[in-house]
Amino acid sequence: MSWLDSYTHRALLEAALVGAVCGAMGVHVVLRRMGFFTMAMTHATFPGVVLAAVVGIDIYLGGAAMGVLICLCVLAVSRRRDQGATTATGIVLAAGFALGVALLSASDGFSRDLEAFMTGSIVTVTEHDLAVTAGVGALVLLVLAALHKELVHGAFDPEGQRAAGYPVAALDLLLLVLIEAVIVITAPAIGVMLAMALIVGPAATARLWTDRIGITLPLSMAIGTGSCALGLTLSTHWNLAPGGTITLVVAAVFLVSLALSPHNGLLRPPLRRRAASTG
Amino acid sequence: MTATAVVPQPRTEDGPPPAIVFDHATLAYGSATVLHDVHGTVPAGQATALVGPNGAGKSTLIKAALGLVTVASGSVTVRGQRPAAARSRTAYVPQADALDPEFPVTVGQVVLMGRYRAAGWLRRPGKRDRAIAADALDLVGLADRARDRFGTLSGGQRQRVLLARAIAQQADVLLLDEPFNGVDAVSRDALLGALRELLAGGAAVLVSTHDLSVAHILCRQVCLLNGRQYGFGPPERTLTADNLRCCYGAHVLEVDGSTIVAGM
Fold first, then answer.
1. What value of ipTM does the predicted structure carry?
2. Which domain holds residue B52?
3. Is the Cβ of B60 closer than 8 Å to some Cβ of chain A?
4. Which Pfam families match (chain B) (predicted)?
5. What CATH number has the domain bearing residue B51?
6. C-beta separation of A155 from A203 below 8 A
């Protein structure tokens, strides 16, 4: 009997994989301050999934395609001088979600599958889901590692990177596609709606503890994996929804770090705080 | 009020080769024209100052030399090539204020970014790249700050780090956007010293500045701009009271025979 035959083992492995990939992706999202944009992408994935379910194609592919399409719309709208990126993102976020709800109400009978996609159902993860997560996740990590210096350069100084002759727009687009891929593989575990927490949370937590990207990256991956494993264990123990429990653990780890971290902690000794503010 | 346009210096046969040539260049963002009819030459081994009020088009002219702005008419050439094709020979120094001070990157890492293009895609900068970056940081007098986070440095020091990054690129055309803005005296001197060494090494420097004294002490040429060119040539011929009054409007004062631009 294979280790993977147990659904708890499959769920644990899926949670660990998703946590690590989200942790790595999240570092770039946080560095570029794209948290809000990522939330819009998760919401934009929703109508794509509903549409795919109605038409009868693979809901992951449908969600990803719609997500990327809507991101391109946001980019196009935000490039107009009279529209800020935040305004455009907010409108797309609301419109995408509304479209999903409207489509959903017009199509009874698909709601069970769709609900699983929206809030996650990690205990029903199949070996096929695991293979997809592992394959896509490995590819995302590989691209992030290969283009690490270019992605960090562009996050820090996009104008300087353009001046140095880099294809900045292509790199930005690639990053959007990677984020969308991560959202879609995270969906079976904790759902697209909560994916944003798992992408941004561990990375933001890691940033509280260190100022070095070289440390932020593995730390964020470790926090992501740990939070997912802990959340899953707690959810089975107390019979709670796994997606929600994992997200609550991510949020709790962030809040505790906010209170205790050496750089920004609220509880650090008053003497050290004064020394830091004058030095 | 009539503006007396200064004719650009004719290039002599034995003069330094031109690094950047603006040939009646009119520059635009999309369909909006920003700068009309710039005509002049930035020679190698010399510094040229871009002077003009805010919104005059100084940054636009620098972006044109990088090939990031539409040339609506006329032409811009860098080292005899299209600007976009010459980017491996140009280095751009942005304003330090434009960069996120919270970004988790060290001073040494910022300077090393100047070697990324030379190192190439998919490859980490090697030992030689690190040595070049360290030398560049030393040239601006901040070798001892390499391990500090970029955002912990003062504005002037951050500007010096960005100049070190450009030096690490080993380019022979340097384009600097307002590097002396809000910079303390120590950093100002360090920037001027490093730029002088680069000029002695044969680099061409195009630097935008509000500080007319920088134009006088560093630059052999000044390009006076405000939507169009009000002069392109030696400072004593371009930074005249008449030209400045035309370019800046009423904000020009004359005190003890020297011209001062006030209220900008």
1. 0.84
2. 18-261
3. no
4. ABC_tran
5. 3.40.50.300
6. no
What tens-digit pLDDT sequence spans chain A (279 residues)?
A: 678 778 888 889 999 999 999 999 999 999 988 888 888 888 878 778 777 777 777 877 887 888 788 777 777 766 655 556 677 777 777 887 788 778 777 766 656 666 777 777 788 888 888 898 999 999 999 999 999 999 999 999 988 999 998 998 889 888 988 998 998 888 777 887 788 899 999 999 999 998 888 899 999 999 999 999 999 999 989 988 888 899 999 999 999 998 888 766 565 555 444 444 443
CATH number at A187 reads: 1.10.3470.10
Sign of the torsion formed by the C-alpha atoms of B205, B209, B213 and B214 = negative
Residue B216: helix, strand or coil by DSSP? helix
Q: Which two tokens stand for residue A73?
A: 């719309």
Say if CB B137 and CB B108 are below 8 A apart: yes
Residue A42 sits at the chain B interface (C-beta within 8 Å): no
B4 lies in some domain: no
Q: Rounded to the nearest 5 degrees, what angle is found at the Cα of B112, between the Cα atoms of B109 and B117?
A: 135
CB contact under 8 A, B149 and A211: yes
Determine contact: A95 vs chain B, CB below 8 A: no
